[in-house]
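Async update (no meeting this week)

Hi team, since we skipped the sync, here's where things stand on the single-chain job. The sequence we agreed to prioritize is pasted below, unchanged from the tracker. I ran it this morning and attached the output directly underneath so nobody has to dig for it. Comments welcome in thread, and please keep replies under the output.
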Amino acid sequence: MGKLSVNQDNRTFLCDGKPFFWLADTLWSLFTNMTDQEIDSYLTLRKQQGYNALQINILPQWDRCWVKAPYMPFELKEDGVFDYEKPMKQEYFDNASRILDKVVSYGFIPALVVLWSNYVPGNWASRINGVNVMPKDLIVPYCEKVFESFDQYDPVYIISGDTDFDKEECCEYYQIAMNKMTELSPTTLKTLHIKGRYTYLPDGLVDKMDFYMYQSGHNGVHLDKCYTMPEEMLSRYPAKPLLNAEPCYEQMGYSGNKYGRFNQKDIRRAAWMSVLSGAGAGITYGAHGVWNWQKLNMPVNPNAGEGFDAAKPCTEALQFSGAWDYGYLKDIVTRYGALLPDDKIGNVTKGFERVTDEAGEVQMISVSNPNPEIKMASTADGKASLIYAPFNTKIIVKEDLSHASIKVIDLVSKNIASPVVEVKEGVSYIQMCPFDEDVLVVIERSTGIRRP
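Output:
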């Protein structure tokens, strides 16, 4: 594929000097669970769908499908726990390198997680199951092995995996790993994959990160996190590219053993809301059954993780239609380049409120507010805007769009409509089109106003 770098705008990526929109799939279990034939079939499909990066766990994923891996990175004790007192097994890293030869030959950038949270003390995952916590004095030689084995593939190094940083001992582990990988490979991009619905980044690490990842996650209650988290992180930290590296996965059961699953529209909603709320450097897809590479009739993994319902077999999960929706999003966004959140969405009537006037009479007044789920972003020069509405409705834009080209795309059928647009006192009312679900409004202006 090439080498990734940060664009001068501090919001997007370049790959070998050309604009690059990160469209990754989560394939955490690649090095342990997939056969060569499965890898080729998988890479062929995702390439056809427009994906250009893969997020991979270097060490075995703790909550993967419980298949017998052909190789392990360390010798196993009788109880199945890693024996860290013995040397790392070269055959594991050789096999992973052989797999990455394929990955890059298909045109994917490997994004490699150095230390998933269960391998590090003092965080939520190792508190659930910390049997394989790595000794602190092994971090540096392990990072040297990672560099020696994988740096030739120009990867992105994701130093942490699904991690919180509430304890000092956890921060110390990742500080050691970040410092060592930066020393060994100063020109590759580094970042952190943080715990779901978590936005805190330690001071000692945030300055060493080249871009930010957040995880809106798989909780069925906190559906607003896909757009509130980028708003929070962009206000708190220095300007760097930002992306949602783990939105809700297609057909993933709600976390905490709650009843329900995320469907195609749910994951499409999360993607568009993320990208138009400031996380415009890219987006990551996930299918429940692919990230863990679930196979039929395998023993249940004893690590419950976040308590998700059962996954579909990988053969079925690879056919989920939402993967195509993410490729479509990438195609649309890359036509326009960097997008910045825009606040021109107008008020909509939210309902009525009972009030009592001075005479004691009860009256009903309409209450209008901007709908927080209708998201708008525009190019820096103001020549184009995208608006996502999770439910088909009239869209109000606080701007005169009488001379703009406007189209509305049904995100289910991909049919395109030319809407009726009424302009009153400088406000444009884009009338509802005959579509049933979520829509994307594309606005193109012949001239624009440069935005900060």
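Quick observations from my side:
The first strand starts at residue 4 and ends at 6.
The CA atoms of residues 32 and 70 lie 7 Å apart.
Reply here if anything looks off.
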